[in-house]
Automatic annotation (TrEMBL):
Subunit field text: Homohexamer.
Keywords linked to the UniProt accession: ATP-binding, Cell membrane, Hydrolase, Membrane, Metal-binding, Metalloprotease, Nucleotide-binding, Protease, Transmembrane, Transmembrane helix, Zinc
Pfam families per record: AAA, AAA_lid_3, FtsH_ext, Peptidase_M41
HAMAP family given in the database record: FtsH
Comment on bound cofactor: Binds 1 zinc ion per subunit.
Molecular function as annotated in GO: ATP binding; ATP hydrolysis activity; ATP-dependent peptidase activity; metalloendopeptidase activity; zinc ion binding
Places the protein is found: Cell membrane; Membrane
Known function: Acts as a processive, ATP-dependent zinc metallopeptidase for both cytoplasmic and membrane proteins. Plays a role in the quality control of integral membrane proteins.
Highest taxon of source: Bacteria
Binding annotation for ATP: G187, S188, P189, G190, T191, G192, K193, T194
GO cellular component, one term: plasma membrane
Protein name per Swiss-Prot or TrEMBL: ATP-dependent zinc metalloprotease FtsH
UniProt lineage: Bacteria, Pseudomonadati, Thermodesulfobacteriota, Desulfobulbia, Desulfobulbales
């Protein structure tokens, strides 16, 4: 039954309930009498009894006819009532229990209706006893394998271990290893999270239960939690198996604490049930819960604790090579003409997700069919591409060529500063594939774990952070908002160097209370320090950053050709790893040598 049907039914029931209540009210309320008539009758001694409740008056006249009326001012009426030999009864005006029960009637009607309806549904589905449970969350078998998922790189390796533990649960626990319970797949829509969960089930040959996070909360109060329990009972009976919860943010968003509105309450109950179930089952029952989200930032921290979703795997949008591989996966299922070049096609669809690519192949097949062709050629792909890009542009997810260039130079700027300076973490990977709000990313990984940081390391870190903004400025002569996070990071480092780590000669090794967010607030406060000191600190922060900025700028200007080369490499490949960056670097060095030799030669002549 769809939600729309439930909604319509609810509206109908509410309407019936309210109408019924009104009819009932009219039946039980005596016919009304105008107040002036009532006063006249009272004067004429035609009233035998009255019952007062607030301003409303009910009574019986001398000929035993009931009536009701309303007095605007009962106080002034009292003397004339008392002057006659009337029977007067009264009750307090606040709604008594009777009134309360009456007001519940529509609710009871609705609930009753719903129960009856549900029973009918249950009958239709064969079992009422298990309503809302197993038959709504059918067990599935998956014939998807890792072959069907392409272009997700490292993520795949992390997940093969899960497959192993499902295939061979005994071996894992015998070695004392803890079988992972929860895996959180994070990534933009259409990157293949659902597909991947199915592939894990398919590879391991275990049953698969799939459910969307919003399926839990759209239900009525209390149903979400009991569905979670039923799901787990069912899964445990069929272990080893996989439970897949899509859009877990729908139930797993941060808990509000306090202000519990109805729906939130329901969500929290569901989340709590999920946490209890995850903690509850013992390790001999291999049930792996895979959840997917594209908003990992809003998840409740409780979900990410050890023993819950402590494995987190990020799936990014595919780069050129990834897109080519995904094209190949979906291209297998259709008949392609000889002129189709997936390498070229992959380069022309930056920003496409796996789902967009699946859609592209499908659309191209439709185009070919429309033109009565026997196979899909490059023209069909081009036509299909235009159609999809238009759709994506409407959703604002297409990155303009200009933005790509700016991002490429920005990231190259970070990477080059990091590469050319000593005392920095080596560059691991550079990418211009957007992730969340970031347009690109330069990832550095330390060779060894660092527990303390040297002055030089910190200064070079600030220079590296500044590198992005400087590259943009050097090449495009314009500032963009893309550097806001870098600026925040650099300011924080400079602030802590001065206030916490005593690394500034002017301020000296004195601790000043300036929290990392201090510079965003009402200005700096210091531990017992004066306003004078606070001002001094601010100017030293600025001085440190200015110094770093100037040095990084110098570095990028002298290595300007390296910057262009690396940015070009990024524009073509979208991701550049450490090895590839080295190749670009050596190309650059060789060219420089060659140029130098040319200059020397011309001087010799
Ligand atoms: P998500 O769950 O991340 O939103 P899905 O798994 O539902 O994405 O992807 C939808 C479809 O897009 C898949 O069924 C598949 O056809 C295609 N797809 C997505 N990612 C990939 C990929 N990495 N390799 C092959 N096909 C993919
Ligand atoms: Zn940056």
């Amino acid at each position: 039954m769809s939600n729309i049907q439930i909604g319509l039914l609810m509206i109908l029931l509410t309407f019936l309930g309210i109408t019924g209540y009104n009819v009932w009210l009219r039946e039980t309320t005596p016919p009304p009498m105008s107040y002036s008539d009532f006063l006249e009758n009272l004067e004429g001694q035609k009233i035998s009894s009255v019952h007062l409740k607030g301003g409303s008056i009910r009574g019986v006249d001398t000929s035993d006819r009931p009536f009701s009326t309303f007095s605007p001012d009962v106080g002034s009426l009292m003397p004339s009532l008392l002057a006659q030999s009337l029977e007067i009864t009264s009750e307090s005006n606040d709604p008594g229990i009777g009134q309360f029960l009456k007001s519940l009637i529509p609710v009871i009607l609705i609930l009753g209706g719903w129960l009856i309806f549900n029973r009918m549904q249950g009958k239709k589905n064969g079992s009422f006893a298990k309503s809302g449970g197993a038959h709504l969350i059918p067990q599935q078998t998956s014939n998807v394998t890792f072959e069907d998922v392409a272009g997700i790189g490292e993520a795949l390796e992390e997940l093969t271990e899960i497959v192993d533990s499902l295939k061979n649960p005994g071996r894992f626990s015998k070695l004392g290893g803890r079988i992972p319970k929860g895996v959180l797949l994070q990534g933009s829509p259409g990157t293949g999270k659902t597909l991947l969960a199915r592939a894990i089930a398919g590879e391991a040959g275990v049953p698969f239960y799939s459910l969307g996070g919003s399926d839990f909360v759209e239900m009525f109060v209390g149903v979400g939690a009991s569905r979670v329990r039923e799901l787990f009972t069912e899964a445990k009976k069929n272990s080893p198996c996989i439970i897949f919860i899509d859009e877990i943010d729908a139930i797993g968003g941060k808990r509000s604490g306090g202000n519990a509105s109805g729906s939130n309450d329901e969500r929290e109950q569901t989340l709590n049930a999920l946490l209890v179930e995850m903690d509850g089952f013992s390790s001999d029952k291999t049930v792996i819960i895979i959840a997917a989200t594209n908003r990992p930032d809003i998840l409740d921290a409780a979900l990410l604790r050890p023993g819950r979703f402590d494995r987190q795997v990020t799936i990014s949008l595919p780069d050129v090579k990834g897109r080519q591989k995904i094209l190949a996966v979906h291209g297998r299922k259709v008949r392609l003409s000889r002129n189709v070049n997936f390498g070229e096609l992959a380069r022309s669809i930056p920003g496409f997700s796996g789902a967009d690519i699946a859609n592209l192949v499908n659309e191209a097949a439709l185009m070919a069919a429309r033109h009565d062709k026997t196979s899909i050629d490059m023209e069909d792909f081009d036509e299909a591409k235009d159609k999809i890009v238009m759709g994506l542009a409407r959703k604002n997810v297409v990155i303009s060529e200009n933005d790509r260039r700016v991002t490429a130079y920005h990231e190259a700027g970070h990477a080059i500063v990091a590469k050319m300076l000593p005392d920095t973490d080596p560059v691991h990977k550079i990418t211009i594939i957007p992730r969340g709000r970031a347009m690109g990313l330069t990832q550095q990984l330390p060779l060894v774990d660092r527990y303390t940081y040297s002055y030089e390391y910190l200064m070079n870190r600030i220079k590296t952070l500044m590198g992005g903004r400087i590259a943009e400025e050097l090449i495009f002569g314009r500032l963009t908002t893309g550097a806001s996070n870098d600026i925040l990071g650099a300011t924080e480092i400079a602030t802590r160097m001065i206030c916490e780590w005593g690394m500034n000669p002017e301020i000296g090794p004195v601790a000043h209370q300036q929290t990392s967010s201090g510079f965003l607030g009402e200005g700096s406060t210091s531990l017992g320090g004066s306003e004078q000191t606070a001002r001094e600190i601010d100017s030293q922060i600025k001085k440190t950053i200015d110094e770093c900025y100037a040095e990084a700028r110098e570095l990028l200007m002298t290595n300007n050709k390296f910057l262009h080369k690396l940015a070009e490499a990024l524009l073509v490949n979208e991701t550049v790893d450490a090895e590839e960056m080295d190749i670009v670097f050596h190309c650059y060095l060789n060219e420089k040598e060659y140029e130098k030799s040319l200059i020397n030669k011309s001087q010799e002549v």
